Structure formats: C-alpha cells, structure tokens
Amino acid sequence: MNPTEFWITYLIGVSLGSGLTMLDLFVLGYIG
To answer: Where are the transmembrane segments (predicted)?
Structure first.
C-alpha cells in the first residue's frame, strides 16, 4: 500500500466514524 492509498483509506475510515481501530495500529507501524 502506497502513502496515497493509505491516506485515502484513513480519511474514509475517519469519515465513516470507524476512526482509529485497525488503521490506528497501521499508522503506528507505518510512521514508526
């Protein structure tokens, strides 16, 4: 998954209110 796809997925998740769940873990792994 490239950064663009990641941010699109992240923004969709936030928009749907699912927010920080699996994506949160991915963010931590992605940034860290």
So the answer is: 6-31
Which residues are within 8 A (CB) of 6 and not within 5 positions of it... i.e. 6 or more apart? Answer: 26, 30
- Per-residue pLDDT tens digits for 1-32: 688 888 887 777 777 765 566 777 777 777 76
Domain definitions of the chain by residue range: 1-32
Cα–Cα distance between 26 and 32 in angstroms, integer? 10
Cβ–Cβ under 8 Å, residues 11 and 24: no
CA–CA separation, 7 vs 17, rounded Å?
Answer: 15
